[in-house]
Amino acid sequence: MARKLKPDRILFLVTLILISFGVAMVFSSSAVMAKEKFGDPNYFWFKQLIFAAIGLAMMFIVMKVDYHVYRHPVIVFSALAIVVALLVFVFFLAAAANTHRWIQFSGFSIQPSELAKLALIFFLAYFLERRKGRVNDIAFTLVPVAVIVALLAGLIVLQPDLGTAVTLLVISGILLFVAGLDLRWIAASLIFALPAFYLLVFRVKYRRERILAFLDPWEEPLGRGFQIIQSLISVGAGGVTGLGFMEGKQKLFYLPEAHTDFIFAVVGEELGMIGTCAVLALFVLFMWRGLRASMRAPDLFGFYLALGITMMVCVQAFINMSVVLGLLPTKGIPLPFLSYGGSSFVVMLAAVGILLNVSQQAS
User: Fold this and answer.
1) pLDDT (tens digit, 9 = 90+) per residue, 294-345?
2) Cα 352 to Cα 336: distance, rounded to the nearest angstrom
3) Would 2 be classed as within a structural domain?
4) What is d(CA 52, CA 13) in angstroms, rounded to the nearest whole number?
5) Model-level pTM greater than 0.90?
6) Distance between CA atoms of residues 82 and 312, nearest Å
7) Which of 29, 99, 257, 339 is most buried, by the most CB atoms less than 10 A from its CB?
């Protein structure tokens, strides 16, 4: 039996700091737009407070639940079945912004693809523990994993949401690599993925435009390059110390998605390099403590579970920040704990609750 300890206080504190900072930045980045569109500057900020309250409640509840509960096959495969059902169900609902990503009700929405990340981590942690030492066995391990990952990623791509699908693939690849997957299988997967990448990116106009904008945003500064140029202007205008909280200019209808996918650019403009480095340092600290909890987990299931959750948060964070800084093509991936949104926020905090429970049982 694992020795009972208190949850990782540093990990807990880092999460609370990110949440508090995120709520403040949502208000700063959305107040003017919310006033213009809804007549209430607090519209997005108030909803984000609700999301934060729900997410924190979930985190505290889940933190008290022994993570070994999620090891039961009924939990693992029920979670997968529910997620697949929801991912299919969204296609029978009216499209929102030409996509089928959300289940909406009473002014709120659920994004099943966010739940898919956690369900996949449950499955991989359960499956890889049981396949210890046989991760390279094609029929016994690789085919079942490939089927589940392809099913979830494929349904998400059809929504369409390529960014979240890629995130799922990255998390899966990391867990399989750590479990001992031979590099030849990784190389073979990348080779076989090239035709799919070509069809999904270069044969789809808006995705091809994003790649071209990434390569040379100034070729069409008022067209496909507009968003990334405005993001870079926003970050650059902040200098070292920033213009001051609430003093940013790019969020005033210049920078699209200022309170969601590009909130990190607002941080750069208002709090400068000091603010952006502080956010980066918080995520690095989160990753360190998450990996520490993973390495000290009393069993393989806890190890993979903590590793998967840590990667879910940090991979998404580093992709978002890289997009804002022009280091990756534009993708609709929010910054964990900071970007406005309900599904991602609540799911991330529930996942952190599980991670804290693993840290509590560290040996």
Assistant:
1) 999 999 999 999 999 999 999 999 999 999 999 999 887 899 999 998 888 9
2) 11
3) no
4) 15
5) yes
6) 20
7) 29
